[in-house]
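RETRY 2/3 - previous attempt timed out on the joint model. Re-submitting the same 624-residue input unchanged.
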Amino acid sequence: MLRRLLSLYGLLFFVFIYAPILLVVIYSFNANTLNMMIWDGFTLDWYRQIFGMETSITQSATYVDSTDQLYAAVRTSLIVAFSTSAFSTVFGTALALAVARYRFRLAGFYRTMMMVPMIMPDIVLGIALLIFFITIGMNLSLLTIIIGQSTFLISYVFVTVSARLAEFDTSVEEASADLGATPAQTFRKVTLPGIAPGILGGWLLSFIISMDDLVITYFIAGTGNTTLPIHIWGMLRRGIKPEINAIATLMLLFTLVIAAIGLYFRSRRQK
Amino acid sequence: MPAPLEIINARKVFRTPEGGSLTALDGVSLKLATAEFVTLLGPSGCGKTTLLRTISGFETLDAGDILIDGTAVTQLPAHRRPVNTVFQRYALFNHMSVARNVGYALEIAGRDKREIRTRVGEMLELVGLTGLEKRTISQLSGGQQQRVALARALAGKPKLLLLDEPLSALDKNLRQKMQQELKALQRELGIGFVFVTHDQEEALTMSDRIAVLAHGQIQQIGAPSQLYQSPANLFTADFLGESNLLPVALDGQSARIGDGQGFAAARPAGAATLLLRPEALGLARPQGPALSFTGVIRETYYTGKDHQVALETPAFGTLHALLRSGSTPLDLGAELTLHAPADDLHLIDEVAP
Ligand SMILES: Nc1ncnc2c1ncn2[C@@H]1O[C@H](COP(=O)(O)OP(=O)(O)OP(=O)(O)O)[C@@H](O)[C@H]1O
Ligand SMILES: [Mg+2]
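RETRY 2/3 succeeded.
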């Protein structure tokens, strides 16, 4: 009886989490142009619309957002995501190594401080960054987005790599040195391959988070730099349009692909 | 030819996290002869691993010097010292094949591929793992991993091989097999081995010399039989093998034990301790002078070829004896007299507390 109840509870829980997402995916294929809550047949028009292709949708149903703007937003988001994730991965990994390997005063303090950006409310971080950039006289630009996002994405990489380092047996580094490898050789041939899954995980995580960050980015983006989440947010403010479902579905797909890549590499390592 | 290893008055003090300091090595000196197999033996925490790590360069000495093959290496970092180590838990590179593990030292030294492949083949043949080049480490048994660790440490032709309890993770049978193989290998290669263990049997069977360590100091160093038969102090006597220790009084010419029996001992007058190994006690009365002990049998164990007997004597408490199986019945509670020939007695100039 209890088992039944528990499995029912589990089922409800999953419905609760995934139903809204599933709806978005279903709606993205709904041909009904007026009310997307009512199923009116299958169509790929919303996807065609995003990519600026010919559609059968009558003018009254389409909206004024141009495909070019959307493309520009995707491009901006990708540039930002590649830059921040690369930057955060390098620095987050270096920090994790420093804290794990060198015993220095306040190491515990640094470790805690690295966690803070992750739990800091986004709004606070956004405002703080905005004020900071204005104070030092930096014009809001792509660069400010990249710097701003990196400040908290480094934390995510730090945590992921630290977890990997914690289970990494340092005696293999000693073995490497014992066999004549310089510290640099040991790092390249032993340490790096050992923590690679953590680094890859941190990189993918920071990439995904960067791609969908809205709140913080919104504060520090300025006017000329619209990332994809900001663009969607703009579209939403002018009403919920069916293309948004299609965009959301594509983003979901993109994220799943990245996560799958991560899992694939992870399982390959553990073999 | 210079000694493969010479340690001169090594001192190492650790600062402990509790705020104190701990002397792990307290003036250790040791010199290896060419192609010698020396074992560091001692109880847990006596500084064996620390001594090994100062030789390989993972710990720096606070005082003293280390020479490898006649060259001082005290200031050199680990990767520039011509020694290799077989680590206790092997520390193999899990992300590399067996062949790359074994060839690692040569890869680092920048040797060409063909030379590395040949040498790896030789090393694997040496340790009996031919044909397993392409395996990953997780596809090997514990014993095979142990051999890979050995092959990896030997591939770079070190002047000296350090082994930190390399056999402790193996089961008893495999362990005995590896002991013999290691010893044979060491003879064949003709390089110095410094071997760490806290298993005294292992130390006795494998070593040319044993250094008994306690409290960061070498208590005694010598051939296994010398250490066993004539230990210099109570610690060594007690640590190696089983022993009966009896207080004796010396008067200059002879020694006298508690019940009044005496034997000749030309030593300065004073107090000392008599070491009586269980094998020294026998059922038959020997020809020459001997000590005799009469008591009641409290325990007997049959070990396959000998009887271990615990004899309770009025004057000395329980004595342990190892008796050849014979016609004499060894019944619990029966009275028995054992004899120890004076030649098998060894005196230690220390008084048991
Ligand atoms: N890095 C360190 N910091 C502080 N104390 C240490 C450190 N390394 C070892 N010690 C201490 O030094 C002493 C000797 O340690 P060591 O590891 O050499 O012992 P061991 O003889 O190898 O023992 P075992 O047989 O248990 O391996 C121990 O008391 C240990 O607690
Ligand atoms: Mg040890």
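The pocket of magnesium ion (ligand 2) is lined by residues B 48-49 (CB under 6 Å). Closing ticket.
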